[in-house]
Amino acid sequence: MKKEWFFDRFCGEQIVIYAEDGKIIEVGVENEKQGDVLGNIYKGKVANVVQGMQAAFVSCGMERNCYLPLDEGAAIFSSYDGSGNAASSELKAGDEILVQVVKTPRGNKGAKVSAELSFVGKNLIFLPRTDFLGISRKITDEKQREELLKEADKLRGEGEGFIVRTAAAKAAKRALKIESEYLKRVYRATLEAAKSAPVGAAVYREWDLPVKVMRDSLGDGEAKVYVGDGELYEKIARLARMRSDLGEKRIVRYTGERSMFCFYGLDEQIFKLTAPQIKLENGAHLVIDRTEAMTVFDVNTGKYTGDSDLESTVLKTNLLAAKEIARQVRIRNIGGIVAVDFIDMAEEEHRLAVTAALEEALSEDRAKTRVLPMSDLCVTLFTRKRMSGELSSFLLKPCNHCTRQGYVLSDIYMAMRIRTAILNCFADGYGAAIVELNRSLMNKILSERYFAGELTGAWKEKRVYFIPHSAFPEERFSIRGDNAQVLTLPDTAQILY
Predict the structure, then answer these.
(1) 324: CB partners within 8 A, 6+ apart
(2) How confident is the prediction for the chain on average, in pLDDT?
(3) How far is the CA of 119 from the CAs of 124, 131, 163, 259, in angstroms?
(4) Residue 294, burial from CB neighbour count under 10 angstroms (0-12, 13-18, 19+)
(5) CA-CA distance, 30 to 185, in Å (whole number)?
(6) How many angstroms separate the most distant Cα atoms in the chain?
(7) Chain center to CA of 273
(8) Helix spans in 242-277 (H)
(9) How do beta strands 277-279 and 112-114 pair?
(10) Which DSSP state fits 65?
(11) Cβ(304)–Cβ(310) under 8 Å?
(12) Best mean pLDDT range from 74-83, 144-153, 212-221
């Protein structure tokens, strides 16, 4: 199996894609200015305590107050095998407290935070306030598990805890000790920063997206890494030189004229993620619907009629759907409750087989999942831990023309599609690119300076003109190339920057 990682940055976004045999498996996107709040630690102030909910609401400088469960204890680390406990503090309005984001804000809901802080390394997670010792369930050798837990126990002080991550299975004892000392220094620095920080300030920030991916996902010795941006390449190569399990030779700087994602056939796959319908290889399809409470998948046979009896046709479709649903929740980073309406199956054996196929496919996911038994109506519910923001929030935005009930392509994703089209235009030998597009979208691109990096770099000797149209839908644009020295353009045309 060919494993590949793709890193790039443009339009103010950092994008990471993982593909197997050319097929996208994971996508991560992070705004360079805003970053991802997941894992950040804030100096917060308790706004109010709701005893009936056993929760406090904490002001952390975000748009909405954060939600803090009061009875969390070590339960928040239950995704790992281990034991321990932690006592929750008695809180009252006005108290200042350090909290860490464990679930990002979503819709009308504020972020979920925890007072049980954690600091993540490659091999260990340090829990400075939680008496808990845990280990990844992906380490299955019992003798090795026992040895690693003993080593982690030696590294912790009174009231502290450690979680042994999957990567620790290949780490030396000295490496674990060095990392544990580093994580403890980070914690002490966080406490020191909190002394003088105002309420609402972030006193600790998680690494940015490329570094987190390198820490958590790279190092298997197999995957090749392609980087489309020069500055990002230098950063990743520098980090790779420090890793014996990674190696700089596996890092490739992409220098082609076309968009890297376009060159490797990833652009079209990303675009398909904006559609509510997903085709299966046998002609059947899935329909995906997002609600505030859950995400729903509906399985349909579509054009597939099978080649034998109805029950076998349905079984084959449901098995294919189970595998694809697991892939889709991973690509789209769908978290929370997921409901799947499989096609009705009469035989209990077939229902069990489909449930087993779904569980097996989800086992490849780094996020924790839990599958419930299929109901008599052939409806399956499963949960998936929310890792960060869903990909749909980057690709789509609410439509203003249907009372915001539907979705259209987002401004930033449209800017990325236009950027790809301009790169292709120049790669085809043209010196000027003329783009006709929606007026509001043009104003957004100009005001946010989405293409500032390209204009001072790859497009420095090129010309880009925008022609705005008030009647154009936001998702419509056209582009043409021209090599004439003097161009005939309407008065509304605007040269980019």
Answers:
(1) 278, 280, 286
(2) 89
(3) 8, 14, 10, 36
(4) middle
(5) 27
(6) 76
(7) 14
(8) 260-263, 267-272
(9) unpaired
(10) P
(11) no
(12) 144-153
Q: What percent of the chain has pLDDT over 90?
A: 63
Nearest to 417 by CA among 390, 400, 438, 388: 438
For 49-87, the pLDDT digits (tens) are: 988 888 899 999 998 999 998 876 544 555 555 555 544
Give residue for tokens 């489309």. 228
Instruction: Say how far apart CA 485 and CA 454 lie, in whole Å.
Output: 21
Domain count, the chain: 4
pLDDT in tens, 104-134: 887 778 899 999 899 999 899 999 988 889 9
Query: What CA–CA distance (Å, rounded) separates 158 from 24?
Result: 45
Residue 476 C-beta-side C-alpha neighbours within 13 Å: 9
CA distance 410 to 39: 26
Crossing angle of helices 209-216 and 230-241, in 10° steps, is: 30
In terms of domains, do 323 and 342 share one?
Answer: yes
Amino acid at residue number 141: D
Listing DSSP states for 109-178 in one string gives B--EEESS--EE-SSEEEETT-EEEEE-TT---HHHHHHHHHHHHHH--TT-EEEE-GGGGG--HHHHHH
Cβ(118)–Cβ(100) below 8 Å: yes
Number of alpha helices (DSSP H) and beta strands (DSSP E) in the chain: 12, 28
Contact 92, 54 (CB under 8 A): no
Residues 111 and 152 in one domain: yes
Residue entry with tokens 């026992």 = 146
Nearest-Å Rg of the Cα atoms of the chain is 25
Contact assessment for residue 67 and residue 112, using Cβ atoms and an 8 Å cutoff:
yes
Domain span holding position 236: 3-34+221-268
Does 245 share its domain with 157? no
Tens of pLDDT along 259-290? 999 999 999 999 999 999 999 988 889 999 98
Percentages of the chain per state (helix, strand, coil), in multiples of 5: 30, 30, 40
Domain shared by 120 and 146, yes or no: yes
pLDDT for position 305: 64
